[in-house]
Every structure is written in C-alpha cells, then in structure tokens.
Design goal:
Layout (H helix, E strand, L loop, with lengths): L4 E3 L4 E3 L1 E12 L2 E12 L5 E2 L2 H19 L4 H10 L4 H8 L5 H6 L6 H12 L1 H11 L5 H14 L18 H9 L4 H13 L3
Antiparallel strand pairs: 1-2, 3-4, 4-5
Helix pairs in contact: 5-6, 6-7
Bound molecules: zinc ion.
Amino acid sequence: MAERVYCPNCRELVETKVESRVETYPVKGEDIPVSATVRVCEACGEDIFDENLDERTLALAYEEYRKRKGLLTPQEIRSIRESFGLSQRGLAELLNWGEVTIHRYENGAVQDEAHNSVLLALRDNPQFVLNLLARNGGRLAPREVERVRQRVFELLQVSDETGDGVVRWVVLPKWLSDLAEEKKLNLSQVLQHALRERLGTS
Ligand SMILES: [Zn+2]
C-alpha cells in the first residue's frame, strides 16, 4: 500500500498512505459531499496532491450531482446517440451544439439541464429526431441522414414496402399511457395493428 512520493512540505520522498474522508466538492456552483480518497504524508500528515485519486473523487462528485439532478449518465448519453446510429460529431451537428460537446459529455463532463432535457426528448420521442433532421440535416452527410431516418422508423416500428412513415400525434388518457409505458408497449405497433384490423387490410 505504502508508496514513496515527494512531499512538498517535507521536501523529500516520504512514505504515504491513502485515506478516505468525506469532502465537499463544488459542481456547477453546488457543494456536493463525496467520499474522497486522499494521499497523506506519513511524516508530516499533510495532504499530497495525487492526480489519479483526485480524478476519481471528482468523478464520484459528478456522479452524485447527476443523481441529485436526475441527469443522464455518460453511458446513457452514449446509448441514446448510438440508438440513432450517429457519431459524436454527427449528434452535435444535428443539435446545433458545439462540435465536441457530445464527446465531452460521454467522457464525464456534466451536461447542463437544458441540454439534458433535449437528450431526454431524443430518447423518448424519436419523432423529435425527424424534426431535427428537417432543420439541421444539411449539416450531416446524406448517408448519415438516411441512416438516422432508418433508425427512427425502426424505433417507431414504421415499416412497409414503401419504407415511408409519417408522424402522427395521438392524445391518450394519462393513466392509459402510463400503463402502456409500464408494459413497454410499442404504441405505433399497437395503433398500426388496430388500424389494419378496423380497416380490414392485412
Ligand atoms: Zn510531509
């Protein structure tokens, strides 16, 4: 466990130990308590800065902050992006965000709440992606646009010979919608079945 490192206070190589203690880290102006791991000089008892331990503690503080605010985790952001077959840069372009924004979020930077809401909308309303494509699709390569459209239609379960889909808004009683969501029903699929049955088409 013990490792000899330079102590700026003792001005020599010293034995150190790693301690855990609760510290408060500021994250976006908010004080977040976190169980920090800190390297301490055995000789003088002062803390010695340790980049790896500090990064670990900061990551924990970010995690706690995300939990408190109900923010998406970096892994969740990545899987939203991947569900549409987009590159990090492609998603940033589609959203008209800074080029490296998504890259930063997926690597642990904490997103602001407005960006978080947009990412949630992407996840929960694939139709929203179609609106974005209509608005910002010109920033993407035509092949990427086509791939995203295909993914959205797959997610919406729109598939027939024409491969074409339209977006319809449907109003439901909240309890019914909640129940359907709980059962993980695909509303588009259910509606398509019901319509086919009602209209007598196969
Ligand atoms: Zn020391």
